[in-house]
Amino acid sequence: MIDDFLGRIVDSNALNAVDIDNLSPLTLAYIGDAVYEVFIRTFLVSTQSTTTHNLHLQSVKYVKAKAQAVVIHRINDMLTPEEQDIVRRGRNAKSGTISKGTDMIEYKYSTGFEALIGFLYLSKNFLRLMEILKVCIKEEEK
């Protein structure tokens, strides 16, 4: 099983459009959450010289549900119809849990944001992913 998985990662067509279209929005959000977290941590480590505790405090400002909900509202006009559909599907997905410290509406919008990030990542649309992530950084810096 691990050999098959590693072979798919090495293969440039590890996930094709049909596979991605069949993934649930919560699965896209699961991947998107991890991609966004690693991106933010990498950005902070490369731009700040501070303790890991301070890096963590800074990263929370970007990755908390409220911040993600704000970003998705601000970038909505720059999204393609397909991207807006991914966000909508993520937002409307039935999740069994909600993060503490957030309300249901923020949580749903943040799930839509994470689904979009996951979709772009798995689609290997890295240029578009970077465009959106750059906007996220600029919005938080304001």
Question: Can you give a write-up of this model?
Answer:
With 142 residues, the protein is mainly α. The protein has a single domain, classed as Ribonuclease iii, N-terminal Endonuclease Domain, Chain A, CATH 1.10.1520. Helix content is 75%, strand content 0%. It contains eight helices and no strands. The radius of gyration is 16 Å and the shape is globular.
CATH hierarchy: architecture: Orthogonal Bundle
The percent range for strand residues is under 5%
Low-confidence stretches: none
> Counting H and I runs of at least 4 residues, what is the number of helices?
8
Number of domains: 1
Overall residue-averaged pLDDT value: 85
Inertia-based shape? globular
Q: How many DSSP E strands?
A: 0
Radius of gyration: 16 Å
Query: Could you tell me how far the N terminus lies from the C terminus, measured between alpha carbons in angstroms?
Result: 46 Å
Q: Can you identify the CATH superfamily?
A: Ribonuclease III domain
Overall structural class, as computed from helix and strand content, comes to mainly alpha
Give the C-level CATH assignment: Mainly Alpha
Strand count, sense and closure of the main sheet? none
